[in-house]
Amino acid sequence: MNTNDTKLPLDGVRVIEFTHMVMGPTCGMILADLGAEVIKIEPPGGDKTRTLPGLGIGFFRSFNRNKKSVVLDITTPEGRDAAVELIGTCDVMLENFRPGLMTKLGLDHDTLSQQYPGLIYVSHKGFLPGPYEKRLALDEVVQMMGGLSYMTGPVGRPLRAGTSVNDIMGGMFGAIGVLAALRERERTGRGQEVQSALFENCVFLSSQHMQQYAMTKEPPPPMPARVSAWSVYDVFTLAGGEQLFIGAVSDKQFITLCDVLHRPDLPAEPRFANNALRVAVRPELLDVLGAILKDHRADELAPKLEAAGIPYAPIVRPEQLLDDPHLKASGGLVPMETDDGSMTEVVLLPLTMGGRRPGVRQALAKVGEHTQEVLSRLKSRIAA
Question: A single Gene Ontology molecular function, please (predicted)?
């Protein structure tokens, strides 16, 4: 990318989005961050995701930046007609509603592609076509079905990942599909339907464990019960109850770690002479290191580990990341004006292009903020 060119890669691409919650909005936000004009269609009163409580309270602000908001009631003939006309002005359509709803409304791919053969239509689903496709899915459901919860929790206690990994990943794959379909349309002149699904996302995350079984014929144990390939690869409790993950994944790193801890005698012990021997007595070694580390302060030890090239990590809570110095310095955490006029810090896409971070270009849209602007351009000049 030419860093002197202020245009973003998807400048000129128009997207219409019929989505809610996380999966579809993530896809739209990625496209919007990369420069597409994304028009989010909201029902009268606004997307209910805006007012979710509890763990859902941050969904809307996290996944709907850089979009325009248009209110349409697509359950009415007038709203549906306006939607169809507006879709005809767009390159891409996104949706993530329950199976069968868009078909019932006449906004499915088969219907729209007859009128708009160049349209790229993206469905974010629970399951790709097959025996499960009519089931309703949630991130929790597919984490249980797709092996992730089993691998995450202790034996007998399946545990979902602590964030919406499949919803977010589903939006990412939807966006990847859009980019590929746009490229193909340049060659063929035709659009196509792209489908991204939660269950298949989760199975993709579990694929390495599936191959582990295919190669060894031994069921992979959950991560808390795993047999580690490395002797030092664990969370240790330090002075004051602080915790630190430390990993020493080679003999050289183990020797270096022992030097940092002022215990150069440990690598000289026959039972700790190499990684294979240390893995065989791993519980004993972890007890030895734990007794040493309990007297070290995290703020004093961490710089020494970093200087020595030893992998380590504090156990960071999400709220602490709002003040993370690296995120701030690297431009990954930036201010955004919200729909109520307040300011908040938001996390940008985890990539750079030509040295730039695709960022926030406009305030988070208020409900229906762009309805008149967008609909007044239609031939029928429908007003909300």
Answer: CoA-transferase activity
Q: Which of 270, 301, 317 is the last residue of a domain?
A: 317
Show Cβ contacts of residue 327 under 8 Å, excluding neighbours closer than 6 positions.
Answer: 321, 333, 347
Q: How far apart are the first and last CA of the chain?
A: 39
Residues 148 and 67 both lie in one domain? yes
By CB atoms closer than 10 A (0-12, 13-18, 19+), residue 127 is buried
251 and 176 in a common domain: no
262's tokens: 């002022």
């110095």: which residue's tokens?
A: 325
Q: Domain range spanning residue 107?
A: 14-206+324-375
Reported pTM? 0.94
Give per-residue pLDDT as tens, 4-33: 457 999 999 999 999 999 999 999 999 999
Tokens linked to 109: 């791919």
- 96, 138: one domain: yes
Q: Among 241, 254, 247, 248, which Cα is nearest to 295's?
A: 241
314 CB neighbour count, 10 Å cutoff: 14
Let me know: does 122 contact 194? Beta carbons within 8 Å.
yes
Output the CA angle 47-52-55, nearest 5 degrees: 140
> Tokens representing 253?
């790193």
